[in-house]
Description:
Layout: H1 3-11, E1 18-22, E2 24-37, E3 44-57, H2 58-66, E4 72-75, E5 77-79, H3 82-93, E6 97-98, E7 102-104, E8 110-117, E9 120-127, H4 135-148, E10 154-158, H5 167-179, E11 183-187, E12 201-202, H6 206-212, H7 228-240, E13 245-249, E14 255-259, E15 262-267, H8 280-293, H9 298-312, H10 323-333
Parallel strand pairs: 1-4, 1-10, 2-8, 4-6, 5-7, 10-11, 11-12, 12-13
Antiparallel strand pairs: 2-3, 8-9, 13-14, 14-15
Helix pairs in contact: 1-10, 2-8, 4-5, 6-7, 8-9, 9-10
Amino acid sequence: MNLRRLDQILDRAPAKRILVIGDLMLDEFVWGKVGRISPEAPVPVVEVTGESFVPGGAANVARNLREFTSRVSVAGMIGRDHSGDRLPELLAEQKIGVLNSSADKNFRTIVKTRIIARHQQVVRVDREQIAGASRTQLKKIVASIDKQLANIDALIFEDYGKGFLSDELVTQVTRIAQAKRKIVTADPSAARLLNWRGMTAVKPNRTEAFLAAAMPCQDHDRAPDKDVDLVRVGKTLLQKWETQNVLITLGEHGMMLFQQGNPPHHIPTKARQVFDVSGAGDTAIALFTLALACEATPLEAAKIANHASDVVVGKLGTATVTREELIASFKNEA
Length: 334
């Protein structure tokens, strides 16, 4: 893709309105240095030098979108606890809207704590509760989304397998979005196989794709476009999900795009030092969906998502990519 076409696509982004629906989380980062091994056990002792908090999970998808458009909102579950107070504050600071996100006194806000020393993640501590919306909450959420759809260009389902998304919620929202000709994409979880039928696009990683296609996930030492099992999985999912596009992310091997009526297309990644893969999938679904909303072709959108993911894995933590960094990545490829 030439830079003129990239600019044309990105110039449309500020006017686009995107809603992210899924598992909302709070990401905590504990930064420090390791100077010794604990005398109590053979583990490093991290001397803490600082802490930081950012919106995570589905909210991290919104953070990535927020770099390109101010019209971003999220919907999900938040607990009535300290973390549940902190998360909306952080979203408000970044001017990310919260659409009828249910605050439940019986729900514990999901928190992922990453302890990082010497530019490496030492350990991650998860505090989470697997719980879905009640029937009353589900009705309110669907009604709220239906009411706002006229002001939304695209919806993203972001499933981390924590329970907020259900077949009923996904099916109801997808049905009303289709009726209003909205772009609908999904980033599935390997933990739960939901009904993704009728989407504009679904973006599983390789493991999730093989699991959804009910095929054993083999080691892949062949080039993706020569991987007959991967090709079979992609074609199977196009039919199973009745979707227009399936974009399978392949880590250091890039991505493979499957489209109805077209041969598969491999988008390779470029060599880059990887510091942290946290949130790379969030960046991919965010930029892929945004590009589609900006009238990019699916292949153009996949290339933009691939470059964006390449940028964020070179950063520590659940990072985002800016327009300038994205353009620079394309320039370096030229």
